């Protein structure tokens, strides 16, 4: 096996040789946080890096301006490695600060670690490419640059367009506070705008002439709150009022808008629950003599786990070992924990995993695959990919235990050495798992058979209808 160009030792060596450049790429993207479907500079940085690595680039994949494909090799198997790079609003933060210190107040920040995610996945693809190139091994490695995971479901649009249909395997990862292979399913989610239109008038002189769109938004919310008692306990409905119709109380609001996220462990159940929410919206419109427009704003299917790939992936992570954190890494994480993170937050960050981890500062082990599959109370557009191709995902420890996603504490750690170490472990794990699939096509055969068995008689129906495009959602209503 020592002469095996796809051996674990060789893959680790190839990743390590390239990791300084890709850590620098991650840091550059951290410094240019861009929101969903607006990641133009981040995409340019990734494309230039992968061009230099010898990949063929395809832009505007799936009709999305900030989605792209980097490909190397010919023939099968075809291995896809998924990357992301979008940031979150209002999370601007100075790197390494131990208190909330925005670089620019109100601006975006990488509060979910997608700077690391994209760079780490690209690093894995580049290392695997080198193994194929050096030894003329048949197979194709693809890096998918995927936008808008946080708000919009970039991979959902890409799945709808068929860009993953010819893959044999899809692999991905996410920065986390633990080292593990992600074995759970997720909640399917559908995002929907409800836009009410009424009639403006003077609120004091002629109130009887007005029809308040804001009243309709509020009545809809009341109705949905009453519905919560009569829906499955593992479903979720969240909302935000995105337009109140203005700041003047003496004008009856002619336009108001809210957005709802409807979630359930199964996409079909989320779609049924959405129909009930729509009925409440139409009821609110009837009560207020307004009209309502319903527009899908995004969506994601639930994840289809694949135990075959998970077992290969966790064995690779176990053999590679956890990140080699240094004293400086532990010291910073301990200070951050003491100053800004509570014991309750530490427990929440590792739930439902081993509760003893709540006393850890940085996770320096590798968790075993749970025997029982659970449903995680979150959503990812990786779910859509997992319905059409066998998919596996790992998490690696890039942050202090207790760090919550979508917080300034995550941003402040996002370009520190500990985060880089977690990213490199992810690249090792992804590249090694891909190499195993290339070396042993029987793994792919078994993974595909498992996916077929899990889906059974179900049919994947994209939660974003064919006519909906991201650019439509950014248009302001007339």
Characterization of this structure:
By secondary structure, the protein is an alpha/beta fold. It has 14 helices and 11 strands. It has helices at residues 8-30, 40-52, 114-135, 154-160, 213-227, 267-288, 307-320, 327-340, 343-350, 382-388, 408-413, 417-439, 441-455, 470-473; strands spanning 56-59, 68-74, 78-84, 139-146, 169-176, 180-182, 188-197, 236-243, 255-264, 291-300, 391-397. The chain has a 7-stranded mixed sheet, with helices on both faces. It has a 4-stranded antiparallel sheet with strand order 8-9-7-10. α3 (114-135) links the parallel β3 (78-84) and β4. α7 packs across α12. The longest helix has 23 residues, at 8-30. The chain is globular. The mean pLDDT is 94.
Average residue pLDDT: 94
Query: Which value, in Å, is the CA radius of gyration?
Result: 23 Å
**H/E series:** HHEEEHEHEEEHEEHEHHHHEHHHH
Number of strands: 11
Spatial separation of the terminal alpha carbons:
66 Å
Helical content band = 40-55%
Major beta sheet, strand line-up: 1-2-4-3-5-11-6
Unreliable sequence segments: none
**Broad shape:** globular
Relative strand content: 15-25%
Instruction: Find the structural class using helix and strand composition.
Output: alpha/beta
The largest β sheet comes out as:
7 strands, mixed
Number of helices: 14
């Amino acid at each position: 096996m020592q002469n095996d160009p796809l051996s674990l030792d060789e893959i680790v060596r190839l990743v390590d040789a390239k990791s300084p450049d890709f850590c620098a790429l991650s840091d550059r993207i951290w410094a240019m946080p861009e929101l969903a479907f607006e990641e133009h500079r981040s995409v340019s940085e990734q494309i230039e890096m992968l061009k230099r690595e010898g990949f063929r680039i395809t832009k505007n994949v799936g009709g999305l301006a900030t989605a792209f494909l980097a490909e190397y090799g010919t023939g099968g198997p075809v291995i896809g490695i998924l990357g992301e790079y979008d940031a979150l609003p209002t999370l601007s933060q100075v790197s390494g600060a131990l208190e909330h210190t925005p670089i620019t107040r109100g601006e975006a920040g990488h509060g979910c670690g997608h700077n690391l995610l994209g760079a780490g996945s690209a690093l894995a693809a580049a290392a695997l490419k080198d193994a194929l190139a050096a030894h003329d091994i048949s197979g194709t490695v693809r890096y998918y640059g995927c936008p808008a995971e946080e708000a919009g479901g970039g991979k959902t649009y890409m799945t709808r367009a068929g860009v993953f249909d010819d893959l044999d395997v899809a692999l991905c990862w996410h920065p986390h506070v633990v080292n593990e292979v992600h074995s759970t399913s997720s909640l399917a989610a559908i995002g929907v705008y409800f836009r009410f239109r009424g009639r403006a008038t003077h609120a004091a002189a002629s109130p009887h002439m007005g029809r308040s769109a804001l009243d309709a938004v509020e009545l809809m919310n009341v109705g949905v709150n009453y519905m919560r008692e009569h829906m499955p306990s593992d479903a979720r409905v969240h909302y935000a009022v995105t337009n109140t119709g203005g700041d003047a109380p003496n004008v009856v609001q002619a336009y108001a808008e809210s957005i709802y996220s409807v979630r359930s462990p199964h996409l079909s159940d989320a779609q049924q629950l959405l129909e009930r929410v729509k009925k409440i919206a139409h009821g609110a419109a009837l009560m207020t003599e307004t009209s309502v427009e319903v527009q899908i704003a995004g969506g994601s299917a639930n994840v289809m786990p694949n135990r075959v790939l998970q077992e290969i992936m966790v064995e690779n992570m176990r053999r590679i070992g956890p990140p080699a954190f240094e004293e400086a890494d532990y010291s910073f994480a301990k200070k951050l924990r003491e100053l800004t993170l509570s014991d309750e937050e530490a427990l929440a960050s590792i739930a439902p995993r081993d509760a003893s981890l709540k006393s850890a500062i940085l996770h320096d082990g590798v968790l075993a695959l749970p025997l029982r599959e659970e449903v995680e109370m979150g959503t990812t557009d990786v779910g859509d990919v997992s319905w059409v191709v066998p998919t596996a995902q790992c998490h690696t420890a890039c942050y202090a235990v207790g760090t919550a996603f979508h917080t300034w504490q995550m941003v402040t750690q996002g370009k520190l050495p500990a985060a880089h170490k977690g990213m490199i472990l992810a690249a090792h794990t992804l590249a090694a798992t891909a190499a195993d699939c290339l070396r042993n096509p029987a793994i792919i055969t078994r993974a595909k058979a498992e996916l077929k068995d899990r889906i059974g008689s179900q049919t994947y129906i994209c939660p974003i209808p064919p006519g909906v495009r991201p650019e439509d959602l950014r248009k302001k209503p007339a």
